[in-house]
Amino acid sequence: GAGVSQSPRYKVAKRGQDVALRCDPISGHVSLFWYQQALGQGPEFLTYFQNEAQLDKSGLPSDRFFAERPEGSVSTLKIQRTQQEDSAVYLCASRPSPNTEAFFGQGTRLTVV
Amino acid sequence: QKEVEQDPGPLSVPEGAIVSLNCTYSNSAFQYFMWYRQYSRKGPELLMYTYSSGNKEDGRFTAQVDKSSKYISLFIRDSQPSDSATYLCAMSANDKFIFGKGTRLHILP
C-alpha cells in the first residue's frame, strides 16, 4: 500500500521487557514523527526526524525511550525496561517536506502487563 | 493552560444537521492548522489542512481559521452516521504539531 505502515499492530510486553516498534513512512517522505496516544486523549509528540537527523526529541518521556532512522526511511522506536505507564498507542506520521500535510499510520497498541 | 484546547464532548446531533467543532490555542506562532478524523482503534485520517487565516472548503467540510482570536473551526454539512468519530485539531509553527484532546461526535440516525 501507499500509506504509512506500522508493525506490529499489537504488542503485549511483560514489565521490564524491551520492545521495538517499526514505522515504514510513505516513500520519499522527508519528515517522520512519533506520537503517543493514551486512551481518550489526543496524540502527544515524542520525536521528529528530517531525513536521518533527529531534530527534536523533547517529547520522549524518559531515557528508556530511543528512536532512530539511520537511512532516512524506516524508523524504529525502542522502549527499554517497559513500565505499565508506557501502555498506549504509538503513532507514526510522515510528510513529504516541512510545512506540508502529515499522514498517520494505524498505530501500534502497546500493553505492558 | 494547554497550548491547544478542545472540548472532548461527546457531541450528539441528528443526521443531516450542521456540526460545528472548535479549538482554541495560545501560541501565536502557530500558522499551520489541521483537522483529523479518528475512528475507534484506527490512526488519525487527515481531513483538512490550512495555512494562516481564512476558510477552506472540501465537499461537506469547511475549515475556518481566525488567527486574531486564536480560534479554529471545522463545519460538517449534511452530517451522516458515518461521520461519527473523534475529531482532532492539530497545529504547528514550523515543525512538530500539537494536538487537542479530540471531540467525540455522534450522529444520530
Layout: helices, strands, pairs:
The complex is a heterodimer of chains A (113) and B (109).
Chain A: E1 5-7, E2 10-13, E3 19-24, E4 31-37, E5 44-50, E6 53-56, E7 65-68, E8 75-79, E9 88-95, E10 103-104, E11 108-112
Chain B: E1 4-5, E2 11-14, E3 19-25, E4 32-38, E5 45-51, E6 54-58, E7 61-66, E8 71-76, E9 85-92, E10 97-99, E11 103-108
Label this structure with key terms.
heterodimer; A: 113 residues; mainly beta; seven-stranded mixed β-sheet; four-stranded antiparallel β-sheet; 11 strands; 0% helix; B: 109 residues; six-stranded mixed β-sheet; five-stranded antiparallel β-sheet; globular
Describe this structure in words.
The complex is a heterodimer of chains A (113) and B (109). Chain A is mostly beta strands and 113 residues long. Chain A has strands spanning 5-7, 10-13, 19-24, 31-37, 44-50, 53-56, 65-68, 75-79, 88-95, 103-104, 108-112. In chain A, strand 5 and strand 6 form a beta hairpin. Chain A starts with a strand and ends with a strand. The model of chain A has no long low-confidence stretch (mean pLDDT 96). By secondary structure, chain B is mainly beta. Chain B is 0% helix and 56% strand. The chains are: A mainly beta (113), B mainly beta (109). Chains A and B meet through strand 5 and strand 10 of A and strand 4, strand 5 and strand 10 of B.
Give a short account of the largest sheet of chain B.
Answer: 6 strands, mixed
Total strands of chain A: the figure is: 11
Relative helix content of chain A: under 10%
Low-confidence stretches of chain B: none
DSSP helix count of chain B?
Answer: 0
Quaternary: heterodimer
Q: Give me the strand/helix succession of chain B.
A: EEEEEEEEEEE
Number of helices of chain A: 0
Structural class of chain A comes to mainly beta
Outline the biggest β-sheet of chain A. Answer: 7 strands, mixed
Strand content of chain B: over 45%
Chain pair with largest interface: A-B, 25 and 25 residues
